[in-house]
Amino acid sequence: MSDSQKTAQHGLAEHTHGSFVPLQIRSDRPRSKSVSDFDAVSPLQDLWRYLQPEQLKGLDADVLGEYEAEVGFTSSSQVSISWIESTDPRVGSIGVPEDKVAAAAYTNASKTLLVEIADSAEVSEPVVININGSGSTPSALHVLVVAKKFSKATLVFEHSGLGVLAEIIEVDVHDEAKLNLISVQNWDKGSSHVSAHFSKLARNSYLKHSVASLGGDLIRITPVTTFTGPGSEVEMNGVYFADAGQHIENRPFVDHAAPNCKSRVTYKGALQGNKAHTVWIGDVLIRVVAEGTDTYELNRNLLLTDGARADSVPNLEIETGEIEGAGHASASGRFDDEQLFYLQARGISADEARRLVVLGFLVDILQRTQVDELVDRLTKVLEEKLGSK
Amino acid sequence: MATLEVKNLHVTVETDQGTKEILKGVDLTINSGEIHAVMGPNGSGKSTLAYSIAGHPKYTVTKGEILLDGEDVLEMSVDERAKAGLFLAMQYPVEIPGVSVSNFLRTAKTAITGEAPALRTWIKDVREAMAGLKIDSTFSERNVNEGFSGGEKKRHEILQLELLKPRFAILDETDSGLDVDALKIVSEGVNRAHKDNDLGVLMITHYTRILKYIKPDFVHVFVDGKIAEQGGAELADQLEAEGYDRYVKA
């Protein structure tokens, strides 16, 4: 896709405006826990080139409010959930912010929500953490998830209501642990949400990381997964549906920094309406040490109407040839008149045809979460969005 | 007993060179249980006739009528025509990513009959129809037409014909791109649907090959947007021997 070339060129040009040195590889991106280390957000920066600072609704400010009362959860012996001071050494041990908004979240959240899954715990029911909007005051939230050795659990982060939120979710997956983590963004109109996810996978661990972004004016998620021990696997899935005026951006990054790990990244989105905009930048880095890596990333977008725009850029950096496999695919296409005609010629109405095609396209990703209640509920949200065209 | 009537049908299409008239006054009447073959050289408008009856938005009817038991088909949307009992087996069926064959068939059947089919009998019906067309059972989990071979696409069209049980079927060059074995299987499917449902068939073809397996009651020679000659099955034999040359005058 020609867009990837544009990105590279723009990236180089951008750095004549900023104070950062030109970046040659993804892992060289500057990191800091302090908001003051970052320049003001500008579309001239490669990280922010697809949106206007106004869309952040103040999340790029140095000072943000705190998010606490709005977070609902139930703690248990197997999954203990509590607020800890952000000065705790565990906080910030998994990921360091790579952009101004994540740094603002880091700097401003004085407390961190710690979610600890006990050693060897096998939790069958999904644990749900409700993050309700606190209104239009730009606010910060920091979450740290620790999945201890041999544990097995499903965590759902539900974002809803009206919110303007800068968020960090750190995920520490210990040896042999299996974690199924889902972040749902179904905000009200007027919401902006910028979230940096950092996951570290230790030896023989497994993470299924899913994001479902449906409601909110702006949703920008940058999920970073780093393999630190051999034999681990990550499945990163994303599903999104942008209506008129919505901007949904996903920038997954898999850092293969250990040998014999496997990653699968699959994001699918649908767009309808004027100025519906989605961005997907998928980065994979295979380091010299990461022999035996097996990776594949895929992004597909379905444009349902004119006036919508999907940007999709897969990037793969390979520092060793001793790998199992590495590939990527990206395609954005329309639901075209011939498909519509075919379905209608079998008696299926135009509305039903659109529903069939879009749900068939997106529900597959929802089902991978294996949380039935969530699949049913989010399928209904998708149906409502389709009905409202 | 139903009747599909095409009366003095004129159809245009928009091209880069402007509006072009493709059909120039087609008259055709098909009754239930009859098999009509429409034969003609490339570019004569055969497929345009098929798509115009089905209601493809690319074609504009400028004059004439299409009636199904006296009802005005031209007033109906594409899905209404299908519900009224018209079926078009397409020459180039499109891929529908993300929609499985089983989901598609069930949705179409529900739309056509107005209610969801009883699950147990439906699964049995689908399985039997697939077996009759020598379609592998894993087919139902694949996405509609995605990665299908030419022969699989055509068999999938006839599978729908057998399951949706329309009153009239238009087969648009269903024989093209099939080897003899596949042609036999597909023809048997059409003959089954014809026999079981008293189906009226409008079979559009370039070649006489398929007529060995599906016996027409009437043969129409289509040239330059209208029917140039009609007769019984013997007309096909004559075309086989002489070709279209005598109809296509420079």
Short description:
Chain A is of the alpha/beta class and 389 residues long. In chain A, 16% of the residues lie in helices and 43% in strands.
In terms of structural class, how would the helical and strand content of chain A be classed?
A: alpha/beta
Helix content of chain B: 25-40%
Q: Give me the Rg of chain B, rounded.
A: 18 Å
Number of strands of chain A: 20
Q: Architecture of chain B, CATH level 2?
A: 3-Layer(aba) Sandwich
What order do the strands of the largest sheet of chain B run in, or round the barrel if closed?
6-9-10-3-11-12
Silhouette of chain B = globular
What is the succession of H and E elements of chain B? EEEHEEHEEHHEHEHEEEH
The overall pLDDT average of chain A reads 92
Low-confidence stretches of chain A: 1-22
Report Rg of chain A: 20 Å
**Major beta sheet of chain A, specifics?**
11 strands, mixed
As for the number of domains of chain B, it is 1
> Strand fraction band of chain B?
25-35%
Give an overview in words.
The complex is a heterodimer of chains A (389) and B (250). Chain A is an alpha/beta fold and 389 residues long. Chain A has one domain (2-338). Chain A has five helices and 20 strands. Chain A has helices at 2-14, 100-108, 337-344, 350-367, 372-387, and strands at 65-66, 71-72, 79-85, 111-117, 127-132, 135-147, 152-161, 163-173, 178-187, 192-201, 206-215, 218-227, 233-242, 247-250, 253-256, 262-271, 277-286, 294-303, 309-318, 325-334. In chain A, the strands form two sheets. In chain A, strands 1, 3, 4, 6, 8, 10, 12, 14, 15, 17 and 19 form an eleven-stranded mixed beta sheet that branches. In chain A, helix 4 packs antiparallel against helix 5. The model of chain A is unreliable at 1-22 (pLDDT under 50). Chain B has one domain (3-242): 3-Layer(aba) Sandwich (Rossmann fold), CATH 3.40.50.300. Chain B has helices at 46-54, 78-84, 101-113, 119-132, 150-164, 180-197, 233-242; strands at residues 3-15, 18-31, 35-39, 59-68, 71-72, 86-89, 96-100, 143-144, 168-172, 200-205, 218-223, 226-231. With 250 residues, chain B is of the alpha/beta class. In chain B, 34% of the residues lie in helices and 31% in strands. Chain B has a six-stranded mixed beta sheet, sandwiched between helices. In chain B, strands 2-1-4-5 form a four-stranded antiparallel beta sheet. A two-stranded antiparallel sheet of chain B has the order 7-8.
